[in-house]
Design brief:
The protein has 401 residues and is of the alpha+beta class. It has helices at 2-14, 60-70, 81-85, 104-112, 117-127, 131-144, 167-178, 181-188, 259-276, 372-400, and strands at residues 32-37, 43-47, 76-78, 101-103, 191-194, 203-206, 223-231, 235-244, 247-256, 277-281, 298-299, 307-308, 313-317, 326-331, 337-338, 343-351, 354-362, 366-368.
């Protein structure tokens, strides 16, 4: 018997202890990171996401966004001397040369795929009278979308001590961009052939973003578009937009030591989200008819539950045992009647630190009535008052006679 117990204890000790993905915090090389759900701005993960850092060529997200908002793709732009001379000669370029004429469409391919810094300057001077005015426009746009911790000093992202953003702000800028299909088109392109110009023959440009390359070991299914960046000061940065399993989210990593580690961090955050979260209709977690919570003085004629909440897709934690979903129902008691499809109350769902409040709507007419426990005492009071009134009248009649 002792041998059996010893053997059983040994087996229990060597069995692996299950670890829930929900309890595992990703370990990253990047010093700044965020995963933000699109539209809701819900933060699914963050690491120093609100601290200032250098964006490098992620800056081009804003340049492309403004070019699409204010420019015309068929307009022809000319490469000028200033757009070339103000650049570090060792920085990333298409390359383009002074006097070359390209459409805005071609410039945007050069900006997105080759990360050509000269294209940003040309685009900036096309959108605004000067580069300084275009940079002012970039900063105004950043503020307008809530990226309040961002300050641009140029259109391309080459280092400047006062050119900074945060991982969270970068996610907001990416979200503003993906609302435009053309923005997604350029930042998802991996190669393009520029037409012949006065300075060069047909020029084929190829991107180096492995996360967008289906043949790369770093490729991530569901990545819609992305922009990478690098300077010595910023190190390696990247922003990407994903849509997979009905989940839509933006990932930003900043200040990563190597390209490989940047891709690994993206993969880590990508799988963290897919393992931890799911997209569901929160209505499915309603376990009882809404009418069970209806105050007694609100009456309706239909036999079925006269209320509904609109089907609402939300992102929740997969592990509903560790993080159960609860809810609280509140009915409005002010109005006397409620017509069909009118808001009569609210239901709030809770999971972990997440709270989602939805309106409760009526399927039929609801009428407020006096409840029985009020009616009976009220009737007794009226009855007593009538008796007293009758007795007073009787006594008055006798005195008159």
């Amino acid at each position: 018997m002792k041998k059996f117990l010893l053997l059983l204890l040994t087996c229990l000790l060597i069995l692996p202890t299950p670890i829930h993905a929900e309890d595992t915090t990703p370990s990253l090389n990047s010093q700044y990171a965020v995963v933000m759900e699109v539209d809701t701005h819900r933060i699914l993960f963050e690491k120093n996401a609100y601290e200032k850092a250098y964006p490098a060529s992620m800056t081009k997200v804003m340049t492309i966004l403004l070019a699409l908002e204010k420019g015309h793709l068929n307009d022809v732009l000319t490469v000028d001397q200033e757009s070339i001379d103000t650049l570090d000669p060792n920085s990333s370029v298409v390359p383009l040369y002074v006097g070359e004429k390209l459409t805005l469409d071609e410039m945007l391919y050069g900006c997105a795929i080759a990360s050509g810094n000269e294209t940003c300057n040309v685009i900036g001077k096309y959108i605004s009278p000067s580069l300084d005015q275009f940079i002012d426009l970039m900063n105004e746009k950043a503020q307008s979308i809530g990226a309040t911790q961002t300050h641009f000093m140029n259109a391309h992202g080459l280092h400047h001590s006062q050119h900074y953003t945060t991982a969270y702000d970068m996610a907001l800028m990416m979200e503003a961009g993906i609302k435009n299909d053309d923005f997604i088109h350029y930042l998802s392109a991996t190669q393009y052939t520029l037409e012949q110009t006065s300075e060069h023959q047909y020029h084929h440009i190829v991107g180096h973003n492995a996360l967008l390359d289906a043949k790369s070991p770093y490729y991530l299914e569901g990545m819609i578009c992305s922009k990478t960046g690098h300077t010595d000061e910023a190190q390696f940065t990247q922003v990407g937009y994903f849509h997979i399993n009905d989940l839509s989210f933006i990932v930003v990593t900043m200040d990563c030591e190597t390209t490989k580690q940047r891709y690994q961090d993206f993969s880590t955050l990508y799988h963290y989200v897919l393992n931890r979260y799911q997209h569901v209709y929160i209505n499915d977690y309603l376990l009882e008819p809404l009418s069970l919570k209806l105050p007694a003085y609100l009456k309706y004629q239909d036999r079925h539950d006269p209320f509904y909440i609109e089907e609402t897709p939300v992102t929740i934690l997969k592990d509903t045992q560790t993080y159960p979903i609860t809810y609280d129902i509140q009915f409005d008691t002010i109005k006397k009647t409620y017509d069909m499809n009118e808001v009569i109350g609210s239901i709030t769902f809770y999971q972990d630190q997440q709270k989602i409040t939805l309106p409760i709507l009526t399927k039929t007419k609801i009428v407020r009535q006096i409840p029985w426990y009020v009616k009976i005492p009220l009737a007794l009071l009226v009855f007593i008052w009538l008796i007293k009134k009758g007795m007073s009248y009787s006594q008055f009649s006798k005195r008159e006679k």
